[in-house]
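Researcher: Let's do a round of design. I'm pasting the structure tokens now; please hold your answer until I've finished.
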């Protein structure tokens, strides 16, 4: 499996949005699963960046994947996840199992 298929980021990365108060919504097969703000994270973004910058070199353009609020659920082949940030838009991805991917390639 190609690692490029593993991180569903894009089609662009917003660099001017304040990450401290972003509301993130996620729908699985059109059913709301997550609806929370980055303000409610157990470990603040400031603390994450502070810690990470002490244990590794962070460079412009690096992406820090923070995890997910409550509502995480198992997905299967053909499931569609739609993640929405009002100021950016919606990112939709359809899940494909490794077995189904291998059949088609």
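Researcher: That's everything. Go ahead.
Model: Designed sequence:
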């Amino acid at each position: 499996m190609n690692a490029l298929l593993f991180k569903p980021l894009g089609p662009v990365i917003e660099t001017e949005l304040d990450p401290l108060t972003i509301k993130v919504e996620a729908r699985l097969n059109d059913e709301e699963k997550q609806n929370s703000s980055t303000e409610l994270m157990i470990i603040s973004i400031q603390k994450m960046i502070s810690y990470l910058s002490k244990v590794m070199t962070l460079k412009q353009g690096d992406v820090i994947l923070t995890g997910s609020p409550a509502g995480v659920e198992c997905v299967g082949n053909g499931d569609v996840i739609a993640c929405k940030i009002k100021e950016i838009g919606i990112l939709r991805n359809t899940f494909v199992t490794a077995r189904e991917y291998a059949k088609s390639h």
